[in-house]
Amino acid sequence: MTTEYIIKNGFVFDPVQGIKGDKADVAVKDGKIVKSTEVSSKAKVIDAAGKTVMAGAVEIHAHIAGPKVNEGRNYRPEDKLFTYTPKKKGSRMAGGFSIPTTFKTGYEYAKMGYTTCMEAAMPPLFARHVHEEIKDTPIIDEGAYPVFGNNWFVMEYLKNGEIENAAAYVAWLLNSTKGYAVKVVNPGGTEAWGWGLNCLTVNDPVPYFDITPAEIMTGLMKTNEYLGLPHSMHVHQNSLGNPGNYTVTLDSLKLAEGIKAKNTFGRETVLHSTHIQFHSYGGDNWGNFESKSKEVMDYVNRQKNITVDTGCVTLDETTTMTADGPFEHHLTELNHLKWANVDVELETAAGIVPYVYSPDIKVCEIQWAIGLEIALMTKDPMRTFITTDHPNAGPFIRYPRIFSWLMSAEARRDRIESFKHSAKMVEATHLAGMDREISLYELAQMTRAGPAKSLGLASVYGGLAPGMDADVAVYNFNPEKSYKPAEIEKAFSAAAFVMKTGTPVVIDGEIVSNGNKRTIWVNAKVNENPQVMRDIKEKFLKYYSVTQGNYDVTKHFLSGNPRVIEVDATT
Amino acid sequence: MTKTVSDVICPFCGTLCDDLEVVVSDDGKTIVDVYNACAIGAAKFMHAQAKDRVKRPRMQQADGSYKEVSYDEAVEYTAQMFAKAKKPLMYGWSSTSCEAQSVGHEIAEKAGAIVDNTATVCHGTTLIAVQDVGIPSCTLGEVKNRADRIVFWGCNPTHAHPRHQSRYSIFPRGFFMNKGHKSRKVVVVDPRVTDTAKMADIHFQVEQGRDYELLSALRVAVRNEKLPDVVAGIPKEKIYEAAEILKSGRFGIIFFGMGVTQTLSKNHNIDEAIMLTKDLNEFTKFSIMAMRGHYNVTGSGQVLGWQFGYPFCVDLSRGFARYNPGETTSNDLLRRGEVDAVFVLGSDPGAHFPISSVKKISQLPSVCVDPHITPTSEVSKLHVPVAFVGVEVGGNCYRMDNVPIDARKVVDPPEGVLTDHEFLTRVNKRLGELMGAA
Predict the structure, then answer these.
(1) A340, B250: Cβ pair inside 8 Å?
(2) Is residue B52, in this structure, part of any structural domain at all?
(3) Can you tell me the distance from the alpha carbon of B116 to that of B384, in angstroms, rounded to the nearest whole number?
(4) d(Cα A123, Cα A118) in Å, to the nearest integer?
(5) Does B144 contact A96 at a Cβ distance shorter than 8 Å?
(6) Looking at the structure, do residues A42 and A157 belong to the same domain, yes or no?
(7) ipTM exceeding the 0.95 mark
(8) Which residues contact B178 (CB under 8 A, 6 or more apart)?
């Protein structure tokens, strides 16, 4: 079998090496990028002349595997209409639009040149389910973020300022669930939802636990840096989706001031604020709803130790799902579509509601504009990443369309002109006055090198430097020729060639291999901590509905193909 | 000397107790005793020890008797059956592991089969209702820690899910419920005076088949609107009183069973029960949960969900997945004569389906994979005994609240007996060869 490839004469965009569209060759040997001189004459040649070459893209935040995603699939048969592709040689039948089947998830990401994806919210008690789905998602490397922001252990330790104990617990849980990072969703608010309540500012106390969202976030940031995990704390803030919530967003972001990154992975940030589009709203009702992207992005641009992702609205019918239980209840009261909810003992909750982002509804038009503004206002594309918070603001298969909006002011103008309320939308947003067009190099920063760095995986993903994983995408897109916006979308929807760890997986937009998928998780070692172990044992005996012996997923996980990131926090 | 295996999962009902202790002999071959299980669960473990257990596949002969055949012959017959069939039915999947289900689905894709699980005669109506109106729910630990209002509607856990009440719903002391059953109010709705009803603070002896009306009446009462004097046999004062009890709780839950899913109105009953739950969330916190029967029927719905997007009656015969209850459900297919082969694993339709469906199974090429001799095995052309999942082989299972728990292997299966996963894997491989050759 061929293990040597040389991708010749493409226009290469690689922020890791600072290559901005130069014609260059990318050589691959044994699953890694190597110098072109290191491959033999037997290397298979991939002709990329006239095409764009980038590293495989890295998805930092999407809901693609686990209990709420699957509840979405099962309770929305209508999502499958007209989407199915039959079984082919080497690939399974695949269907679904906003919540595709696991097979379709892997195939569609790969076709767009995405090779690494992070499941954004894993309820620890359901970790085994998440990993079962990850195992059935072909091609892409995947990790999953367990949620901590409403966890009873975490709230109790942080209330008492016990960072070391919180760290021992986080390390234990990452190991038990094979998780990747510290995820926080509506800190405190989701626990309050256990009683049908919520925390809408960073200072609302959590019922019974008597701690505030601000204390939870600050504590978890400190815990994260105490451990030196590869990714920073990854937060979905309080008061998502409400008019006027940008002040809560700024309050949350400010918590990062003065906290320093401490890790061995080259990560310089301590807080990742996700789908910030949903958190950049002004006004105090849906009538005077407006964009506050400028206020938020001015702060993000200034404060160098935070990263954000956009959460761009794609104007589709989709399925919202989040561990922010109270928000989904709020949403079903707004749109009256079917509501699913699961409260998870001691840990978290989740809700699901279908949603139609209509170009005929003013609020949706404004949301669409805000998502794009966030990306266009960034002064540091290495800290601002493109997402749709799949499937919340829209399905991930729409990334190429978002790229076309970001890369072409003409595309944005066309879209705005065809809105039902375009005049009102223009008044409530900044977008119409912005002429910035994202370059291919910036796109590579916002979808490859940037997220990889924030995840602490910059040494293996998101670039084409020798020694990195051979994840490469080649697009039928010639940056030297003039192009129409539709051509951007077409080129990035079906890559000409995609390689995953040295194995070609997509050729001419068609899946040719199921690749060599891996599951990424963090094994953090801490000092022995008898107190935390005793607390864990006690909570399982008294309050969990499963035994401690049946909680750990290690045994189940061994059948996977793990990529373990080792962290040593012992002292 | 014996040894004790702890944290064992009980492969019987959807309660999926995971605290069993099983005492096995020193050589690890026989089960000596089972602790913590209910009578049914313990019997399941002990039954695996039966001396007269079938250990090799059996093929039906022309005179109706059965003759022992090898696993190789059984694999060949099954693979040939799938290869020849235009529209085979693959039914069951509720008493096996997710790993086995997954291999079954690969076979189904190759053979163009219909995959249906026991929800089709059980909580399939619930799944349809969830597709109509959603479902606010929670894990069972939430019930234990928070719930002070418990409703059992059309179900009798005392007999069907024997440890449900002590582990999760009525009796346990939870974090915010440290007085156990003393801090809970229990409402039971059932036309029969069941042993569950005997434990209730309020028992509504609803007129049979009038659940929809009573649910609607409760929605009216929750809003303090006017009711007729009697609804479904219950005086309105009682209904208002019950509504007040539900609203005044801090965290409530409705558990429901086949008394509402498979009686008059079917999925519409569940629509209404879910909407009542949603209404109650205007006043307090409320959840609703289906009392799933088989220990891994929930898992079948999950695996079908992530692989094909639908929770039961998934028709792959056209090369892509379709779902249309009433058309692609097992009994409808069988009774209309639309399938030309039947494969059963992890259920016993011979005991649970209408006789008109069972007759069809007996007339078709058919395979029954089951550790026991069952009514289904006795009408199938081929019976393939396999190891007991959760006793002799592990594998993932999903509890009624969708929490996944790995079943444990406690003892070895009898020598030479395959697991269902192994049998399916061999059939899948052979079918691949046959289809490739065709």
Answers:
(1) no
(2) no
(3) 19
(4) 14
(5) no
(6) no
(7) yes
(8) none
